[in-house]
Amino acid sequence: MEHILIPPHGNTLVNRVLSEAHAAEAKTRLAGKFSLTLDDEQVKDVKNIARGVLSPLTGFMNESDFVRVVEEMRLADGTIWSIPFVLDVSEEDASNMNTGDEVALQDATGNLIAVLHVGDIYGYDAAHVARFVYGTDDSAHPGVAHWQAMKSRLVGGLIDLIDNTKEPYYEVNLDPAETRYLFKERGWKTVAGFQTRNVPHRAHEYLQRCALELTDGLFINPIIGKKKTGDFQDEVIIKAYHFMIENFFPRESATFSILPARMNYAGPREAVLHAIIRKNFGCTHFVVGRDHAGVGDYYGTYAAQKIFEGIEDEIGIKILKFEHSFMCKTCETVATSKTCGHGDDVRVPPSGTKIRDLLSAGQPVPADIMRPQIVEMLLQQKSLFVE
Known about the structure:
Blueprint: H1 20-30, E1 35-37, H2 40-50, E2 59-60, H3 63-72, E3 87-89, H4 91-95, E4 102-106, E5 112-123, H5 126-133, H6 142-149, E6 153-161, H7 176-185, E7 191-194, H8 202-214, E8 217-220, E9 223-224, H9 234-248, E10 254-256, E11 259-260, H10 268-281, E12 285-288, H11 303-306, H12 312-315, E13 318-321, E14 325-328, E15 333-336, E16 347-348, H13 352-360, H14 372-379
Parallel strand pairs: 1-4, 7-8, 7-12, 8-10, 9-11, 12-13
Antiparallel strand pairs: 2-6, 3-6, 4-5, 5-6, 14-15, 14-16
Helix pairs in contact: 5-6
């Protein structure tokens, strides 16, 4: 019997990556034409769209999709979608483009990344977007601040990717076609996606094991990219999870790939986006814990779980909802308030600040927070954190 994987969002896995021959022809065709320079986060957006990570998007949003996503959390055709993907341009750049034009998209070094087939060119109200997408117009929110700093016009249109390089970490940067092939080869009919931005600690390991109890395979998929001071280095996260998978999970029960993508810190709405992305990778389940993709105190602790009420079936991926986990000294195991009846005095939460402070000082993290083998491996690294 044929092994059929979960369909991608919108039922078609987008592929806007040009072949070598077509990429060469596009480079020749674009020579001397108007170009736009993308920042690193926009380059990630372009590549994720073209590789199908953001299926069914085939380019930056035209106005009809943009307006409906902002206000109703749906694309113009009614498909659930929670975060607008747009390309902002200045008034001057907008005046140099017309619908139907081909525009060269390049990175900061001048390297040609993609072709943009110009669609709509339109304006927007940043405060309006912020209130709907982030639930606040407070400029202290990083997502709101990002929209406030954007250029005044947006341009939509199809993308054709010319530069499909995956540096750095190309060996662990799989696109959805590749993960789907891997899952199929391993015979996984059900796959749990797990997102993280940190090295593995006991509480996360507990959630991963719970997810693996319910599915055939575990797909650990950390977001890699723009960092703030004190964050773990990307290569440290990669190395720690390789160590975890090789030493603590059953053989071929778990796999790992990075997700180069921007963080919007949109809380509930971003949880929906993250679930859709993992569905595109081939996951049938997705773990959503406390304060998923949140920042500060803008969202309720479990708001990212509640947003799926009434839309989970329509999205088509099963949401695994977990409460805050911790090590209970009396239970002598990792638990949540659903499974542990003891008080906070015997509960040891996985404090990210404590973990960072101890590792920065070259001191071991207590075994009830992080596995000693992981700690030992981390302490051997030359550089753990972004400075």
